[in-house]
Design brief:
- By secondary structure, this protein is α/β, with parallel strands linked by helices.
- It has two domains: 273 residues, Aldehyde Dehydrogenase, Chain A, domain 1 (3-Layer(aba) Sandwich), CATH 3.40.605.10; 190 residues, Aldehyde Dehydrogenase, Chain A, domain 2 (3-Layer(aba) Sandwich), CATH 3.40.309.10.
- α7 crosses α8.
- Bound molecules: nicotinamide-adenine-dinucleotide (NAD).
- The site of nicotinamide-adenine-dinucleotide (NAD) has 32 residues, from α7, β11 and α8.
């Protein structure tokens, strides 16, 4: 069994408490690794290291800082197979998807390294003669990055890459459910000969280590990817020192299928979006609205496709479409939501139970018919392979139903009519809309939720600028 350490101030260290968190392989139920259970002392050491390193790091040209990102990309590629195996084991992500996450993460570091010669300040017209106004973009200082369990490796890079490139230093806290891949990476980063303290990997619970990182006056910015509940705690914690926070939280993505859509394409894309990583993706299609005139035909095709979804060990060959849920508590949560939907009047068209498997926290791909907008399963994030189906009469009704939601992360529409597509894009109140394709964002886009789905965002130019603050100089000559 692997025993991991934290990376603080350039050195691999145990936690101050010398306590460990057991990392479970959710498919086998075995404990696959021990991760440090860092506490407030570890948090302080990591913050001090990041603070001490920050001025010298910011003083380096961006092109020099970019070298650190390139080294990280390279070390990921050199260890891509082992990292994917750990990722697949610690969270039951099917191996091909785990490999995509690892390879995408390496590309992500390279992508932001490329911004070194691109991001810039501004020259502003002055109201006075013989005066220049210069707007500089400067780093925030020490950034705290808090990661979720569902894409632990990629989300880590989403925070480390833009933070370091722009001259910040960073303290990362992975989820205590899935810290192994990140801490394996930390071991490799320790060997990269980077300036001590620019990137620190801690490990521990949100309620102890996490709270200390968030509430410290050293912390200039907190970037969290996680649940609305954690986001609320982060807002409370950062209020103390008026610390900037960027929050990427939950979703409840609607998928709208119009009668004129290519129905086979829509079925394929909706099912892929719903079952990828066993439904545990923030931008997955979480509720489906189908135009009344095609509702029976479409639902029949959908149920057939969901029944055909394969599930097995994350390492099975050929790879299944999905594996099991990340934990027993996630499985119980999904089960409770489907049971409640049944009581509210939903009809289980397929699935609706734990399948007969020897091992793993499996829930069968499920379609729920006869759903109403006020059902819990239509309003709250399931984060599992469960799709409630509702119907609509016209586009106005579909858009109104889609927008009637506390979350505003992603949305999708399937139609062959470009006018309907643009009408929907202009009226859907979500950070992203996908037309005739499954939900999945690009690194050069901007992933940002409306309403309870978050504040700020990640990726591309706008994601980079989240890690910068402005400084205007007025120069008379
Ligand atoms: P979670 O909120 O339980 O945990 C996220 C992280 O926050 C963990 O590292 C946890 O330890 C930490 N944390 C919790 N309370 C804290 C506190 N008081 N102080 C500091 N840190 C604290 O979320 P999760 O279950 O790991 O992830 C699933 C959720 O993340 C889902 O809701 C999903 O939609 C969301 N998510 C959103 C995006 C996005 O881009 N919007 C991406 C991935 C996941």
């Amino acid at each position: 069994m692997k025993k991991y350490q934290q990376l603080i101030n350039g050195a691999l260290v145990d936690s101050h408490s010398n306590q460990f968190i057991e990392v479970e392989n959710p498919y086998t139920g075995e404990i696959m690794a021990h991760a440090p259970q860092g506490d407030e002392v570890d948090a302080q050491l990591a913050l001090d290291a990041a603070q001490n390193a920050q001025d010298a790091w910011a003083a380096q040209p961006a092109i020099v800082r970019a070298q650190a990102l390139k080294k990280m990309a390279n070390v990921i590629r050199e260890n891509r197979i082992e990292l994917a195996n750990i990722l697949a084991s610690e969270q039951a992500k099917v191996l091909p998807l785990a490999q995509i996450e690892i390879d995408f993460t390496a590309d992500y570091f390279d992508y932001y390294a490329g911004w070194a010669r691109i991001y810039e300040g501004e020259i502003i017209q002055s109201d006075r003669p013989k005066e220049n106004m210069l707007l500089f973009r400067q780093p925030m200082g020490v950034v705290v990055g808090i990661c979720p369990w569902n894409f632990p490796f990629f989300v880590m890079a989403r925070k480390v890459a833009p933070a370091l490139l722009t001259g910040n230093t960073i303290v990362i806290k992975p989820s205590s459910e899935t810290p192994a891949t990140t801490l394996e990476f930390a071991k490799h980063v320790a060997g990269l000969d980077l300036p001590a303290g620019i990137v620190n990997f801690t490990s521990g619970r949100g309620s102890t280590l996490g709270e200390k990182l968030v509430r410290s006056p050293i912390t200039a910015m907190v970037t969290l990817t996680g649940s609305v509940e954690a986001g609320t705690r982060i807002i409370e914690g950062t209020a103390e020192n008026i610390t900037k926070c960027s929050l990427e939280l939950g979703g409840k993505a609607p998928a709208i299928v119009c009668a004129d859509a290519d129905l086979d394409l829509a079925v394929k894309a909706v099912v892929a979006s719903r079952v990828i990583f066993s439904g545990q993706v923030c931008n997955c299609a979480e509720r489906l609205y189908v135009e009344n005139s095609i509702a029976d035909e479409f639902t029949e095709k959908l149920v057939a496709a969901m029944k055909a979804v394969t599930y097995d060990s994350p390492f099975a060959d050929p790879a299944p479409d999905m594996s099991c849920q990340v934990s027993h508590s996630q499985l119980e949560k999904i089960e409770a939501m489907v049971d409640l939907a049944r009581k509210e009047g939903a009809e289980v068209l397929c699935g609706g139970k734990r399948p007969d498997m020897k091992t793993g926290y499996f829930y069968a791909p499920t379609v729920l018919g006869n759903c109403k907008q006020d059902f819990d399963v239509v309003r709250n994030e399931v984060f599992g392979p469960v799709l409630p189906v509702l119907t609509f009469n016209d586009l106005d009704e579909a858009i109104a139903l889609a927008n009637d939601c506390e979350f505003g992360l992603t949305s999708s529409i399937y139609t062959a009519n470009i006018n309907k597509a643009f009408e929907a894009i202009n009226r859907l109140k979500f950070g992203e809309t996908y037309v005739n394709r499954e939900n999945f964002e690009a690194m050069q886009g901007f992933h940002a939720g409306w309403r309870k789905s978050g504040i700020g965002g990640a990726d591309g130019k706008h994601g980079l600028y989240e890690y910068l603050q402005t400084h205007v100089a007025y120069i008379q000559y």
